[in-house]
Amino acid sequence: MKPETLTLPADLREPAIFEGVVTPGGIDDQVLVYPETKPPLKWFVAITFTILLMLMGFGFIGYTVMKGIGAWGNNNPVFWAFDIINFVFWVGIGHAGTLISAILFIFRKKWRNAIARFAEAMTIFAVMCAGIFPLIHVGRPWLAFWLFPYPNQRALWSNFKSPLLWDVFAVSTYFSVSAMFWFLGLVPDIASMRDREKNKWKKLAYTILSLGWRGAARHWQHYEKAYLLLAGLATGLVLSVHSVVSFDFATSQVPGWHMTIFPPYFVAGAIFAGFSMVVIVMIVVRETMNLQNLVTVRHLEVMNKVILGMSCLMGYAYCMEGFTAWYSQNNYLIHTFKNIIGGYYGWAGWTTITCNILIPQLLWFRKCRTSYFWMILVATAVTIGMWFERFVIIVISLHQDYLPSSWEIYKPTIVDFGILLGSFGLFFTLVLLFARTLPVVATTEVKAILPGAQPHHGAHHE
Amino acid sequence: MTHTTSSQPAALLGALVLGALGVGAAYAFVPAERFWANWILWLLFLVTLSLGALFIVALEHLVSARWSVPVRRVPERIATLLLVAVPTALVGLMALPVLYPGTRPEALQNKLLAGKATWLGVPFFSARVVIGLALGLLGLWILVKGSLRQDETQDPAQNRRARTFAPVFMAIFGFTITQTGWDWVKGLTPEWFSDIFGVYVFAGAFLAALAATVLTVLSLRDEGRLEGVKCDHLYNLGGFLFGFTVFWSYIGFAQYMLMWYANMPEEVYWYRWRVEGGWGAVTLLLALVHFVIPFFALVTRDAKQDPARLRWVAKLMLAAHVLDLYWMVFPSVPSLRHGPVFSWPELSFLLCFGSLVLLWVRRAQGVGRDMPVGDAFLKEGLEFRL
Amino acid sequence: MSDRAYAVLGLFDTPDALMAAIPKVRDRALGKVEAYTPYPIHGIEKALGLRESPLGGMVMVMGVLGAATAMFFQYWMSAVDYPIVHGGKVPFSWQAFVPIMFEVTVLFATFTAGLGMLLLLNKLPFFGHPVLNAKAITGITRDRFALAIEAPEGTLDIAAAFQALEAAGAVDLEVLPATETSPQFTSRGVMGFLTAVVGACGVAAFLTYWAIKLFHVLPPMADMQKQPRLNAQAASRFFKDGTGMRTPVKGTVSRGHLGLGVATQDEAAGLPNPLPRTEATLLKGKQTYTNHCAVCHGASGNGTPTLTAAYGAKPANLLARQFKDYKDGQIYFVVAKGKNSMPAYGADLDEQQRWAVVHYVRALQRAQDAKDSDLK
């Protein structure tokens, strides 16, 4: 009964990472054609639309800066609303890219190589969108530099005990690390583009950006070590950044905010929302750029399984929150939770539960995991549901907390909506720009895992 | 569990007998609170270790992991500890009126407990314990018994069954491990609550089970019994040990920091008991042995696959898990709150249950084949390279 | 382009071919052997005899440094330089400092890994390497694998190198000429620039901090605080004797206390009462009398106040014949200088008050044997 004699039944075998015959040169030709050629009309139409959306958003931001936060619906006690909801939403979306890029690398999941590049790009763009909100939601954004500890004539230092300052450090670190990780991954790919490019100016640009990379084995050695270390460090960030964001709420005493489960709950939610956004972008990229052989149904299926898993974790967290509210026998906490499923904003609570827990259960079915229609339906529902989850946490807890005389209903204004839509415009503008200027697939990484890419005697030790 | 010598089982048996006598003496002579606190501590150790091991097995099926198939039999065997955990837990139900304020009639007078007195009361408490453990046994049957059966039948249906059952088990595990933490640990202080507690207990359980797995794998390897398990496999195990040390520390710190920060009188006292006086030293020790030392010991790549390093770190982690449970349980008991106690009762329990676990796990190494030879994925697992 | 050969390069089509060739070429010991590949090849470091990368250790050290730096600076800023209690938390709240400490650790470690790898270990950017101009480079970054025998000092035996590579299975061999001009934009330049920027920031921060600290103690900024003015009950450098408090010039009188001008009560008899006998004067006199005199002389002036029993001394009965015969000035003198047991009230009451009291006392005296006609 030797293990070698056992054959794997077909249904248990895993599908190949790539479909069809893929060669290293073929990957270059397939992927690099996009940065090298002029985009088609539909790209210009799309980016015009996203740029207009983005400009509208900037317009509303400008209006806010001139008029003040009164242009928004924020009131007393709901002093945080769309601003922080959008901030947490975008930071959350960024986490998927880092997970795919870093954590899956640590787990040696080779299938991640084809999607890591644009997932990581999405992280950077999402963090950029996120960073706008803390900046504009302070009453005097032109004084935002006061957040940083620099020697000043007031002899003051920043308040390091505040979670808001932890956010500043966490999100800036996250942005820097993601950008560094992303750029390092790009260097060998840009070197490929440099060597293919005929146009003098583009070649110069690629030469500079690729830093003179020449593929030397000595360089690869240090490069791989750096990549592994960065992946490990970025993994730590995935956990810590959204936990620090959750501390904004959990360190307070607001009922419904001061729940110890917030750190892992927010991280799970971030991965959940982020993966959904990645699935949506992945489908668009796959279809419009004919990358079906590199970004396969297997990739999509695994992503959907992760989404399903995260949905179950979110379900656990919701159950724990609800149960804890009852168990606490704390009237304020119980009231807050009753407001989530009833009350003025009860519809938001039910939207959240439906979109985050109920609809993703469709992904138990293989058909839904592999069909564009169902995948996009679920991913869109999750995106909406996760936005509403932050709405529920922030607005419902704030609008009716301890003192009934302070209770007040919150109503967003058109400026709030305009800025939210504008942020989507910014995000997709950056994605579209990225898709036509840089390789959306990490060609070097994919080449390294093709069958026959590595020498046959693998170095192993007993 | 480093080398097999014929004297070792005898020594363990001797320790078990001595410990059991001590436990009996403790029952007779030591105040009930202290006796039962010790019992709860070790029942938690058994439950968390066995459920954690079962979780490892289910996780492997859930994600269709290949590299771990050669070592999967080890956590499957460790999971059989559940058969010891169940009677221990049932006996532990006798501790309810002694240690659990929610089960006493005075709870109805307490404003904070009256509303949930039914939930906290003996019938519901016991029902939850029984259901949780029963579901755990179900998991044991399907995952472990099924895997052992597959050794003979080589039927791939077991793989399908395990893969389908894995997500169900995750739901079961979510319930049982949360219930274990909330009822057995938090029930000692029913006015206090923390919704991350289930995750905290999970982290400790998973880590302890990983450590036990690593120790057993190394031990079997030393005996030449796990041929084909290479340093690549050890690296992955070491990586998990490292990663989840960080995860446990993150959860533990998050819970502490949030309660410290908000400083709400209705919840911060749980930590004040553990941070002031003698218990403060235990907290520092816990941070040291559960986080600092394992973190720095396993941070480098080489360390993660070095058998000698893995061995002592895994042993330290198991000890740290016991310390963690001690830290969770004892300060919540009013008569034990003033400072950490460690005397002959604690030592007896340690000898008794410690050797029981060691003996049982040792014996379990004879159950089934050393690798799941009936599993068609074994070949791929043995070929695994980093 | 110079005639000097930097290296000889040979291309291979598969990684196996490359790996097989490496030991053969290394054995010939013709120069430094380097491989150029489109992606990292497993096991090639060992085959080429490369030392392990020190990056891990560097990152660990910098990570720990990051943690220590973050904790120290937060401690110093919050508990030493400007100790402050926020939200009831003690100045050094290490629990609150952990998140930032963690993030800064990751930041330091990341930049060490990324920049250390690029600038320090790989010495990139570097645009002057001969292979970048080779024909083979397009294949290297695409799908072919190259092995080069390099001799930077220019002592390469080209023929032998060609032969060695061909024997090992290489195709498409070429000679890489050494580059003449040294490139401008190199890793050293970048490192120098970054060091300069970081150093400048550090120096600027340090100087700014100290400048601000010293700012308000240096002239002329300190002039606002260090004014040569006289502060009450404080020393002063302005006067020779060092005190800010000065004694008045000899002959200074305070307002309302010009001096009686007479030495004895008899002399005072000649002093006229300068105040008119108006209601306002009498009211003032009443107020002053009530506050200062009634305690001993009684509310009606008869010398039987509530105090006498405990007091011992016998105040004068102002309604007596003797005092009715007093001139205004004599009453005034007694008020100012005192008489027998009565202390002097000259310091307490100014001239106006004393004369007003005199009027009031006269009114009290008159009230003793008032006629109906007085009430008009």
Topology diagram in text:
The complex is a heterotrimer of chains A (462), B (386) and C (376).
Chain A lengths: L23 H13 L4 H27 L14 H25 L6 H25 L25 H34 L3 H10 L7 H34 L11 H27 L8 H32 L2 H11 L4 H13 L7 H5 L1 H28 L14 H24 L5 H7 L13
Helix pairs in contact in A: 1-15, 2-14, 3-4, 3-7, 3-8, 3-13, 4-5, 4-14, 5-6, 5-7, 7-8, 8-9, 8-13, 9-10, 10-11, 11-13
Chain B lengths: L6 H23 L2 H31 L10 H7 L2 H11 L3 H4 L11 H4 L2 H4 L1 H32 L3 H29 L11 H26 L8 H32 L2 H11 L2 H21 L2 H4 L2 H23 L14 H21 L13 H5 L4
Helix pairs in contact in B: 1-16, 2-3, 2-4, 2-8, 2-9, 2-10, 2-15, 2-16, 3-8, 4-8, 8-9, 9-10, 10-11, 10-15, 11-13, 13-15
Chain C lengths: L4 E8 L2 H14 L3 E5 L7 H5 L6 H27 L12 H28 L15 H4 L4 E6 L7 H10 L3 E7 L9 H29 L49 H4 L10 H19 L10 H4 L9 H4 L3 H10 L13 H18 L8
Antiparallel strand pairs in C: 1-3, 1-4, 2-3
Brief characterization of the structure:
The complex is a heterotrimer of chains A (462), B (386) and C (376). Chain A is mainly alpha-helical and 462 residues long.
Give descriptors for this structure.
heterotrimer, B: globular, C: 376 residues, alpha+beta, Cytochrome Bc1 Complex, Chain D, domain 2, 3 domains, 4-stranded antiparallel beta sheet, 13 helices, 4 strands
Can you characterise this structure?
The complex is a heterotrimer of chains A (462), B (386) and C (376). With 462 residues, chain A is an all-alpha fold. Chain A has a single domain (38-144, 161-449), classed as Up-down Bundle (Formate dehydrogenase/DMSO reductase fold). Helices cover 68% and strands 0% of the residues of chain A. Chain A has helices at residues 24-36, 41-67, 82-106, 113-137, 163-196, 200-209, 217-250, 262-288, 297-328, 331-341, 346-358, 366-370, 372-399, 414-437, 443-449. In chain A, helix 2 (41-67) packs antiparallel against helix 14, helix 8 (262-288) packs antiparallel against helix 9 (297-328) and helix 9 (297-328) packs across helix 10 (331-341). Chain A is globular. Chain A starts with 23 loop residues before the first helix and ends in a 13-residue tail after the last helix. With 386 residues, chain B is mainly α. Chain B has one domain (30-382). Chain B is globular. The relative contact order of chain B is 0.17. Chain C is α+β, with helices and mostly antiparallel strands and 376 residues long. Chain C folds into 3 domains: 5-185, no CATH class; 192-218; 265-375, Cytochrome Bc1 Complex, Chain D, domain 2 (Orthogonal Bundle), CATH 1.10.760.10. Chain C contains 13 helices and 4 strands. Chain C has helices at residues 15-28, 44-48, 55-81, 94-121, 137-140, 158-167, 187-215, 265-268, 279-297, 308-311, 321-324, 328-337, 351-368; strands spanning 5-12, 32-36, 145-150, 171-177. A 4-stranded antiparallel sheet of chain C has the order 2-3-1-4, with helices on one face. In chain C, helix 3 (55-81) packs antiparallel against helix 4 (94-121), helix 9 crosses helix 13 and helix 12 (328-337) crosses helix 13 (351-368). The model of chain C has no long low-confidence stretch (mean pLDDT 87). Classes of the chains: A mainly alpha (462), B mainly alpha (386), C alpha+beta (376). Chains in contact: A-B, A-C, B-C.
